[in-house]
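Hello forum,

I keep getting stuck at the same step: I have a sequence, I want structure tokens, and every attempt I make locally crashes halfway through. Rather than fight my setup again tonight, could one of you with a working pipeline run this one for me? It's a single chain of 228 residues.
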Amino acid sequence: MKLLKKLFIIILILLVVLVSILFFIGFSYYSNTLKDEPLVNRVEKITSQEHYTPFADLPKNYINAVIAVEDHRYYTHGAIDPIGIARAFYTNIRDGEFDEGGSTITQQVAKNVIFNQDKTLVRKLGEIFAAYDLEKNYSKDEIFALYVNSSYFGDGYYCIYDASYGYYQKNPKDLTLEEASMLAGVPNAPSVYAPTVNPDLAKKRQRHVLNRMVEYGYISREEADSIK
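Reply #2:
Ran it on my machine without issues. Output:
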């Protein structure tokens, strides 16, 4: 019994040391990245763009579609969402597909605005600290707007304004539910889901978005089926 107790204590100490090391690595990586350019400057680069679309000019269906498929607890959790990470892992294993990620919308903004797209553990750790910094300095609506204005939608469109005009020849505020649900699914994998690249896969992704909107009560099953 004493041996098991000692073993447990040793394992606990090792875990604390490991977490501390990871904490230090992530914080250092984020801090060093900001030395090149402060967070506020990076955000202003996005908000000052000619085609920047503020949150107030985004249609409700589009906002709901993005939240449903990307981060349905967005307005109720903090910078990271442990429940969302666990749920995404379970869903992907259950479905045998990897349609869901565990990153929050805020973490994705951190990746788009502060870091690069390299999938490394160090960047992921730094992304967590960046997400907390974003939520400390900006509202949820502002962060959401940063997300849709810094995401790639395929075909050379790097914000929702350009994607809306590029694919549908209209202002984002005029997007229909069908168009909004299509665009909400594209940033997950633009090279795959862009409507001009593979229409069949784009429609499949759209159906996934619509199903999520039904699941979380944004639209009725009848509305979703009418588009499918």
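The chain has one domain: 19-72+80-227. If your local run keeps crashing, start a new thread with the error log.
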